[in-house]
């Protein structure tokens, strides 16, 4: 009986996977598609969807300083005789990865980028014999990390010219995880300064570079309005919304089936669909490769991808987001779809303004949400979005609850005060929370109710085992804001009503009393009573920006 091939867990070097005869899902036809596409190609996909492995494959395929026939002989691309003859090991390749470019200050981040450039220069030291004296001088300065910033900014463009001169062949430039350092600069607050440096390093090499045969960049987001892609001619972008390369990153159902069959896991098909499916790349259903490979290894359905870090930016955005966004996240957790415009050219600068569009775009590009259909007019980028699968749902549940816990007050315990009829304690604790969290929100907006609504929903996230939660549902003759129906009949039901304060109503206390009156007059209790619940707690929360008055009956 043949032994099972080993799985390439944590490996993204194509050569070592093939030479060690590990389990490999053949994506080699990407090479042909890349050759047939634009001069500069940007591919964005969520993390751990095979970007680095594919870039590594291309590096070994094109580079002209190695003979790598043996790596490709058994693969689909091998049948493409014309491609093999014309392109296999025929080009000088500049390969850079910025996956480790993470630092909390700009000096260190620039050093890491320079380190990568230095390595490439050292690797190609032999081409110096074709250089003029002044060029050799700069080449040496770069190798010894003594160059000026402007010389680093031109380093990739210059290197492509030197390689062309030496090999009489244009260059293939591969840049993996180009946006990792950009995201770092945003997270650590030096984005504006850094984007100028990075924009020049990459932009100079990609724009009007006559020595460039092909440039391929991969990342998670497509960064726009920056100097990187401005003026880049013939740029082709492949995002989760486009059909270009849509089956080359992540796994198709056929590839998943083959993997499950090979590792004797066919009986898990149903769960695999529920947990790891749901990515929509240009209309094609795609599965999370990281989770599938780990499942084949560990033979257990569990959270793999969401536990593999990389959520800092998402968490920061949820924390800073408006009440409206938080409410929509609640809707998503409930299994509903939301609709939003998606701006494929994400601008990190806009994230500070918490523009909703940027947040949902980032959630979509990072794989936490998926799109189900295009809902806009022709050419208008509006899409229906939902949580991708069971694995990403867990992330939302966990993250929302984590962020709530970060408020240092355990929300559930506050609700317990209410359930145990410690009304004064509930009021004090609730007011404290409002003071602490309101700074994240714009409560002067049109619908400050949403802030309070979001706050209560945030509190009840952890209670879903004990309570049925209904939010803004028709109840009796009108709508109550939030209703909690206990699953145990002896527990009390709770109705929350939020009232924005208007001067004509007198003081805040009057507004809260009107809230109680509304609960009673409009028969909101009927729905709870229909479940056989006798005790009902009525809570009216009246507010004027940060000021809150609560009446409990």
TrEMBL record:
<dbReference type="InterPro" id="IPR012547">
    <property type="entry name" value="PDDEXK_9"/>
</dbReference>
<dbReference type="InterPro" id="IPR027417">
    <property type="entry name" value="P-loop_NTPase"/>
</dbReference>
<protein>
    <submittedName>
        <fullName>AAA family ATPase</fullName>
    </submittedName>
</protein>
<dbReference type="Pfam" id="PF08011">
    <property type="entry name" value="PDDEXK_9"/>
</dbReference>
<feature type="domain" description="AAA-ATPase-like">
    <location>
        <begin position="8"/>
        <end position="229"/>
    </location>
</feature>
<dbReference type="Pfam" id="PF09820">
    <property type="entry name" value="AAA-ATPase_like"/>
</dbReference>
<dbReference type="InterPro" id="IPR018631">
    <property type="entry name" value="AAA-ATPase-like_dom"/>
</dbReference>
């Amino acid at each position: 009986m043949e032994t099972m091939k080993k799985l390439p867990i944590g490996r993204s070097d194509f050569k070592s996977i093939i030479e060690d005869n590990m389990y490999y899902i053949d994506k080699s036809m990407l090479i042909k598609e890349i050759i047939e596409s634009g001069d500069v190609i940007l591919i964005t996909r969520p993390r751990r969807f095979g970007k680095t492995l594919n870039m590594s494959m291309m590096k070994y395929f094109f580079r002209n300083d190695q003979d790598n026939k043996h790596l490709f002989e058994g693969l689909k691309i091998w049948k493409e005789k014309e491609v093999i003859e014309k392109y296999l090991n025929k080009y000088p390749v500049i390969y850079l990865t910025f996956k480790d470019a993470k630092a909390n200050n700009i000096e260190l981040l620039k050093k890491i980028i320079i380190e990568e450039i230095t390595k490439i220069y050292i690797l190609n030291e032999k081409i110096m014999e074709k250089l003029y004296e002044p060029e050799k001088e700069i080449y040496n300065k770069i190798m010894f990390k003594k160059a000026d910033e402007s010389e680093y900014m031109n380093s990739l463009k210059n290197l492509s010219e030197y390689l062309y001169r030496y090999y009489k062949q244009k260059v293939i430039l591969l840049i993996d995880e180009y946006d990792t350092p950009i995201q770092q600069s945003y997270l650590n607050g030096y984005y504006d300064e850094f984007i100028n440096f990075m924009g020049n390093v990459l932009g100079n090499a990609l724009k009007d570079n006559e020595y460039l045969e092909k440039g391929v960049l991969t990342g998670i987001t497509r960064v726009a309005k920056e100097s990187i892609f401005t003026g880049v001619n013939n740029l082709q972008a492949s995002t989760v919304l486009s059909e270009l390369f849509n089956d080359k990153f992540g796994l198709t159902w056929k590839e998943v089936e083959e993997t499950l069959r090979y590792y004797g896991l066919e009986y898990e098909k149903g769960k695999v669909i529920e947990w790891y499916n749901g990515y929509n790349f240009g209309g094609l259903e795609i599965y999370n490769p990281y989770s599938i490979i780990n499942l084949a290894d560990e033979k257990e359905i569990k959270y793999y991808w969401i536990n593999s870090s990389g959520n800092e930016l998402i968490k920061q955005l949820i924390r800073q987001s408006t009440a409206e966004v938080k409410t929509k996240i609640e809707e998503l957790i409930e299994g509903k779809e939301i609709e939003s415009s998606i701006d494929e050219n994400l601008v990190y600068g806009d994230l500070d303004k918490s523009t909703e569009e940027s947040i949902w775009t980032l959630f979509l590009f990072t794989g936490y949400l998926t799109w189900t259909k295009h809902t806009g007019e022709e050419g208008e980028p509006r899409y229906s979005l939902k949580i991708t699968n069971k694995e990403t749902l867990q992330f939302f549940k966990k993250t929302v609850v984590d962020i709530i816990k970060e408020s240092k007050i355990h929300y559930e315990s506050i609700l317990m005060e209410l359930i145990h009829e410690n009304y004064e304690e509930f009021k004090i604790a609730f007011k404290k929370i409002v003071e602490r969290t309101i700074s994240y929100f714009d409560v002067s907006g049109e619908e400050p109710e949403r802030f309070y609504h979001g706050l209560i929903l945030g509190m009840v996230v952890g209670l879903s085992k004990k309570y049925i939660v209904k939010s803004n549902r028709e109840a009796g003759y009108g709508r109550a804001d939030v209703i909690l129906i206990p699953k145990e009949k002896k527990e009390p039901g709770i109705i929350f009503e939020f009232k924005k304060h208007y001067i004509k109503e007198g003081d805040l206390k009057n507004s809260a009393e009107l809230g109680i009156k509304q609960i009673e007059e409009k028969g909101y209790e009927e729905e709870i009573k229909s479940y056989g619940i006798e005790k009902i707690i009525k809570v009216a929360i009246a507010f004027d920006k940060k000021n809150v008055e609560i009446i409990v009956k």
